[in-house]
Every structure is written in C-alpha cells, then in structure tokens.
Write a structure and sequence with these properties.
Elements lengths: L2 H14 L3 H15 L12 H17 L3 H17 L6 H17 L5 H29 L1
Helix pairs in contact: 1-6, 2-3, 2-5, 4-6, 5-6
Length: 141
C-alpha cells in the first residue's frame, strides 16, 4: 500500500465510525447473503461480534502507517480463525462483503480511489492471515 491509499482508508473509516452499527449490519447481512453456509459459524446474537469487527477494523486502520506494529496481531487473528473453521476461500467472500458494505455506508464518498485503497488494505491483511494460518498448520501438523 502506498501512503495515499493509507490516507484514503483512514479518512473514509473516520466517516464509517458514526455509522458503526449500520456498517456492521450491512457487512454481516451481505456476508450471509453471499455465502449462507457461513451463518452457523456465528452466534444468533451478533451484537458482540459486530463490535469485535469494528474494533478490529479500527485497530488495523490506525496501524496501517506502521504495518509491522499490527502484523503480529493480524497473523494471530488468522491462526485463530482456523479454529473457527475459516478456509482460505472465505477471505474472498469477506472482502467482497466488506467492500460492498463500505460502498453502501459511504455512498458517493466511496470513490474508485477509496475502493482501490480498501481493496489493497484488505488484500494485504487477508494474505497475512492466510499465510500465518498455513504456516501454523504446517508447524503443528
């Protein structure tokens, strides 16, 4: 990611903060629409999960300027997600749901540059999570 992309992600996330509940609702509704088989992995009451999603996003977005500070946590998250049943192919669906939810929540402020920046950020993080999970399973298997 370049500095301009980091700025786009951070500035647009500031616009998401006031609509946290709506944004997380959009995300999970879209995720389960794209892949209904993922719904059983989550509790019926999603309020805690939605808060975790938004706090994780806030942590990551804030740390994009210094990725080395967030990567250990991102990698640990990838390893934990294996235990939840997450498969590498799920990351594409999650990314699609995230980008869609951001587009809905931000409206005309979700420009092509903002979309490109979020896609770059998500791709970087998802790859780190997938790679960490793969390395962990090699080491423990």
């Amino acid at each position: 990611m370049n500095q301009k992309q980091i700025e786009h992600v951070q500035q647009s996330f500031e616009l998401v903060k006031p609509i946290t509940e709506a944004a997380s609702n959009l995300f999970y509704d879209r995720l389960f629409e794209l892949d209904p088989s993922l719904r059983p992995y989550f509790k019926e009451d999603m309020s805690e999960q939605k808060m975790k999603l938004m706090s994780t996003l806030a942590f990551v977005v804030t740390g994009l300027n210094e990725p080395e500070t967030i990567m250990p946590a991102v990698q640990a998250l990838g390893i934990r997600h294996v235990g939840y049943g997450t498969q590498p192919e799920h990351y594409q669906t999650v990314g699609a749901a995230l980008i869609w939810a951001l587009a809905q929540g931000l409206g005309d402020r979700f420009t092509s540059e903002v979309e490109e920046a979020w896609t770059a950020a998500y791709t970087m993080l998802a790859e780190a999570m997938i790679d960490a999970a793969a390395l962990d399973s090699e080491g423990s298997g």
